[in-house]
Specification:
The protein is of the alpha/beta class and 320 residues long. It is 37% helix and 22% strand. The strands form 2 sheets. Strands 1, 2, 3, 4, 5, 6 and 7 form a 7-stranded mixed β-sheet that branches. The structure holds guanosine-5'-triphosphate and magnesium ion. Guanosine-5'-triphosphate binds next to helix 2.
């Protein structure tokens, strides 16, 4: 089986047809919508809620999304192509620059920008950066105050006032991304703003990302859930092989750590931690792959300070 055959075998994206070559061209409200915001505002949560499946990694830690992900929302009369961007934050390392480039690309591709705000945190430097990008990208911007379930009216007012300084004309909405009905109101708003055009993707497509790349994200999600502080941020996950057979899917992956000292933490006493990580990751990947049996191998290697090396980031496709 060729590499390409292996990649398209997944149910998530039938990459058989080129974009625009759909066999059943249909028309409706459609366009590209960027999800912009500082880290941890709920961009990926919103994407998962509206797609009705767990494609994007979500965690309570900032900088969960490292690379933009495309998610396609389809309903009877619309197809909204969401671009989930990494959270906007200041650049310190090469990986931050790669993430900033990813955000810039998403804004370039967007017809409408949804700027997600987390009012539970007092606006700070990252909010300033997000507001700057939104106000200078030249695209229509919707300000969306997320986490309505846990924020106070005063917090929402303060956050809105902060963003309105740079985006005085932008329309604002409140939302709870964890709640389908609430997220649905943003969908309705977007539908009212998008033009009527031919759809670019098949109605069944949910994303253009291959299952193996989503699986790498889900392993990262398990790392973020189980490891403390900076450790998960200093790990890169790559999928080395993905073999589908009658008995299930065999996956070989590599966790690249930044320091030898992190090995012991990731493996844990008697291998307890790595077992827990594998268990959590297998559960998430099996769910993604419609309950298939998952045989997951995880190798560990150390590449000192890999987040500072542009060439390494290119090799693992974190820098396009
Ligand atoms: N209470 C509440 N929590 C939310 C809501 N939306 C997201 N969260 C939580 O906020 C945290 C961050 O969510 P993510 O979706 O990973 O945020 P993100 O904006 O994609 O973050 P980055 O990828 O780091 O930029 C997670 O713990 C979510 O469960 C919401 O509407 N209400
Ligand atoms: Mg995210």
């Amino acid at each position: 089986m060729s590499e390409i055959d292996e990649q398209v075998k997944g149910d998530v994206f039938d990459g058989g047809d080129a974009v625009g070559a759909s066999m059943t061209p249909e028309k409706g409200r459609t366009g590209y919508v960027a999800l912009l915001g500082r880290p941890n505002t709920g961009k990926s949560t919103f994407l998962n809620t509206v797609l009705g499946c767990h494609l994007a990694a979500v965690s309570s830690k900032p900088q969960t999304t490292r690379k933009s992900m495309l998610g396609i929302y389809n309903d009877r009369d619309s197809q909204i192509i969401f671009l989930d961007a990494p959270g906007v934050h200041p650049s310190k390392l090469a990986i931050d620059e790669a993430m900033s480039e990813s955000v810039a690309k998403v804004l370039e591709d967007a017809d409408i920008v949804v700027c997600l705000i987390d009012p539970t945190r007092t606006p700070g430097e990252e909010d300033g950066l997000a507001a700057d990008l939104a106000s200078t990208c030249g695209k229509p911007v919707l300000l969306v105050l997320n986490k309505n379930d846990v924020s106070t009216p005063q917090q929402r007012q303060a956050s809105l006032a902060f963003y309105r300084e740079k985006l005085p004309q932008a329309e604002a909405l409140e939302m709870t991304a964890l709640d389908g009905a609430s997220a649905g109101r943003l969908i309705a708003k977007l539908k009212s703003l998008l033009p009527e055009e031919l759809f670019l993707y098949d109605r069944e497509d949910v994303t253009t990302v291959y299952e193996r790349d989503i699986a790498a994200e889900l392993i990262r999600e398990a790392l973020l859930e189980l490891l403390r502080e900076e450790i998960p941020h200093a790990i890169a996950v790559t999928i080395d092989s993905w073999t589908v057979s009658d008995t299930g899917i065999a996956i070989e992956s590599t966790l690249t750590l930044e320091r030898e000292a992190h090995k012991g933490i990731v493996i844990g006493q008697g291998g307890k931690m790595i077992k827990a990580i594998r268990h959590a990751a297998v559960k998430k990947i099996a769910e993604l792959c419609q309950g298939a049996h998952i045989d997951l191998e995880m190798r560990i290697r150390v590449v000192p300070n890999w987040r500072k090396h542009k060439q390494f980031l290119k090799n693992i496709k974190l820098w396009e």
